[in-house]
TrEMBL record:
<feature type="domain" description="Polymerase A arginine-rich C-terminal">
    <location>
        <begin position="357"/>
        <end position="470"/>
    </location>
</feature>
<dbReference type="InterPro" id="IPR032828">
    <property type="entry name" value="PolyA_RNA-bd"/>
</dbReference>
<feature type="domain" description="Poly A polymerase head">
    <location>
        <begin position="59"/>
        <end position="206"/>
    </location>
</feature>
<dbReference type="Pfam" id="PF12627">
    <property type="entry name" value="PolyA_pol_RNAbd"/>
</dbReference>
<feature type="active site">
    <location>
        <position position="77"/>
    </location>
</feature>
<feature type="compositionally biased region" description="Gly residues">
    <location>
        <begin position="529"/>
        <end position="547"/>
    </location>
</feature>
<feature type="region of interest" description="Disordered">
    <location>
        <begin position="458"/>
        <end position="547"/>
    </location>
</feature>
<dbReference type="InterPro" id="IPR002646">
    <property type="entry name" value="PolA_pol_head_dom"/>
</dbReference>
<dbReference type="InterPro" id="IPR025866">
    <property type="entry name" value="PolyA_pol_arg_C_dom"/>
</dbReference>
<dbReference type="InterPro" id="IPR043519">
    <property type="entry name" value="NT_sf"/>
</dbReference>
<dbReference type="Pfam" id="PF01743">
    <property type="entry name" value="PolyA_pol"/>
</dbReference>
<dbReference type="GO" id="GO:0003723">
    <property type="term" value="F:RNA binding"/>
</dbReference>
<keyword id="KW-0694">RNA-binding</keyword>
<feature type="active site">
    <location>
        <position position="177"/>
    </location>
</feature>
<protein>
    <recommendedName>
        <fullName>Poly(A) polymerase I</fullName>
        <ecNumber>2.7.7.19</ecNumber>
    </recommendedName>
</protein>
<keyword id="KW-0547">Nucleotide-binding</keyword>
<keyword id="KW-0548">Nucleotidyltransferase</keyword>
Length: 547
């Protein structure tokens, strides 16, 4: 009894077998068994490992990179784990930066600009019993001053707020989340170190949590989102989540309410921008998590089957697969476009007793409403919001293909993103395919060809004006009527034609919209009240419909 009490005070387990199972059993698997191809290891990751080992430290490639190497895949990212502290790691590399508060790690940077590569280096962490950790009543934000001097701290729910206590490799492996992510590869001697049968699970295509899943989700609720992300990423390879790992997900998702919104926002972007957005939506539905993780993610799942959002998700997956950059502003602009478009139309038409607004002010106000309702203060007032606003505000400008507008639009910094957005709208039938093709050619053409394209638009507009100014119901002239009189329209017809030409100068209406002269003249006769407002709203609505 006394021994058990002492063991509890020292943080030891009640029995040797339990302690052994908690940290697993070290297995060193040789190259002839794991069959990893050394050529798949990034040279910069190899250099980081070698530099640390030559300085007398342990160092291994770790995590998802080892999993991918076992599966014969070339990893996109490489992480390194070592027993060197962050300060010791930083001292060995010319361009290395210590980042993070909750988990302090080092980024070793190679190259510059867009072509730079980051190798993330973490120090082996001790497996700490939360009962022995320092506790705070609030969260990261409310307890910032209190947490500053703490190395291991948890909140009232057991969520880890600080985890910067260094320890041996076996304890570092135990505190990782999934068995297939808890293996260590030494590229020098080509040994894989495995404590929790990660190689076996990789061969069985099983995603399994280390330890008790419910407890691990409580320690860090973001593991719920990581479980979804990994299951979506590995689903194409045939991986399935172990039943015990999946069982507590729905109930544990309530713990996400205590996670800072900014961290959830970042995790949501990881779900959607790792090249498996469509698979992520499928996993969320399969696991019963279509709502409750993050409000904006709920919208994505709800609209994932709509043609426009589905096309945006597929396009994002394609770009990631091709190694091209993706911007969160573009994808979120696509997801929330339906809200902006509907609010824009309502404001122009003056629905719900509102006064009709001109097109551009109506669009600006609709965008503000969407930011307030959907994004809030997390990232809605930063660069992401500015980029989304530019993409949306450029859309009506694609209708104007005369004068200097095309030149100034192409010169905009966000033109390519706005064009790709409009291109997707054309793909789903929301915009004329001819307009999308015209802008595609204009944006890549030389000066002479651009002039030809502008002249082509002017000719099309003149042709439409001539068609609209021709009287479709004019009576045939009598034989005895003078020719000059036959060609001369009456005063009312001239007034109608001038009115139609005036409308055409503002926007090019669709073909076949011409109406009888007398009817159009009566509609355009000055009125008070709803009549005048309808005319203004109708003109704006015509421009929006042409998109």
């Amino acid at each position: 009894m006394i021994k058990k009490f002492i063991d509890k005070l020292l943080g030891k387990s009640a029995g040797g077998a339990q302690g052994k199972s908690r940290f697993g059993k070290r297995q060193e698997v040789p190259a002839e068994v794991h069959k990893i191809d050394p050529a798949l290891v990034d040279e910069r990751a190899r250099n980081v490992v070698t530099t640390l080992q030559q300085a007398g430290y342990e160092a291994y490639v770790v995590g998802g990179a080892v999993r991918d190497l076992l599966l014969g895949l070339r990893p996109k990212d490489f992480d390194v784990a070592t027993n060197a502290t962050p300060e010791q790691v930083k001292s060995l590399f010319r361009r290395a930066f210590i980042i993070g508060r909750r988990f302090r790690i080092v980024h070793v940077v190679y190259g510059r600009g867009r072509e730079h590569e980051v190798i993330e280096v973490s120090t082996f962490r001790a497996y700490m019993d939360n009962a022995a950790a320092e506790q705070v009543a609030g969260n990261e934000r409310t307890s910032k001053g209190e947490l500053a001097s703490m190395k291991h701290a948890v909140d009232a729910s057991g969520r880890v707020l600080r985890d910067n206590v260094w320890g041996p490799q076996e304890e570092d492996a135990a505190r990782r989340d999934f068995t297939v992510n808890a293996m260590y590869y030494d590229p020098a001697n080509q040994i894989v170190v495995d404590y929790h049968n990660g190689i076996r699970d990789a061969q069985k295509l099983t995603l399994r949590m280390i330890g008790d899943p419910a407890t691990r989700y409580r320690e860090d609720p973001v593991r719920i989102i990581r479980a979804i992300r990994f299951s979506a990423k590995l689903a194409a390879l045939g991986f399935k989540m172990e039943a015990k790992t999946a069982a507590p997900l729905v109930e544990s998702s309530k713990l996400l309410a205590d996670v800072p919104q900014s961290r959830l926002f970042d995790e949501m972007l990881k779900l959607l921008q790792t090249g498996h957005a469509i698979a992520t939506v499928e996993q969320l539905r399969k696991l019963g998590l279509v709502t409750g993780i993050y409000p904006l993610l709920d919208v994505v799942v709800e609209r994932a089957d709509s043609p426009f959002v589905k096309a945006a998700l597929q396009d994002t997956d394609r770009r990631v697969g091709e190694g091209k950059p993706v911007a969160p502003s573009f994808l979120l602009a696509c997801v929330l476009w339906a809200d902006v478009r509907d609010g824009w139309a309502q404001r122009q038409e003056g629905r719900h007793g509102q006064r009709p607004q001109p097109p551009f002010p109506a669009l600006q106000d609709a965008i503000d409403d969407v930011f307030n309702a959907r994004i809030g203060d997390v990232s809605g007032r930063g660069k992401l919001a500015a980029d989304m606003r530019e993409i949306w505000m450029m859309q009506p400008r694609f209708d104007k293909r005369t004068g200097s507008t095309p030149y100034s639009l192409v010169d905009q910094a966000r033109f390519r993103a706005a064009f790709d957005f409009m291109r997707l709208r054309a793909d789903v039938g929301e915009v004329s395919e001819a307009i999308a093709e015209w802008w595609q050619e204009f944006s890549t053409a030389d000066d002479v060809r651009q002039q030809d394209l502008l002249e082509q638009v002017r000719d099309e507009q003149k042709t439409r004006q001539r068609v609209r100014t021709r009287d479709p119901v004019a009576p045939k002239p009598s034989r005895g009527e003078p020719a000059a009189r036959q060609r001369q329209p009456d005063a009312e017809s001239r007034q109608d034609h001038e009115a139609e030409i005036e409308v055409d100068a503002g926007a090019v209406p669709p073909d076949g919209e011409a109406a009888a002269p007398r009817k159009r003249r009566r509609r355009r006769k000055p009125r008070t009240g709803a009549g005048g407002g309808s005319g203004s709203g109708g003109e704006g609505g015509g421009s929006a419909a042409a998109e």
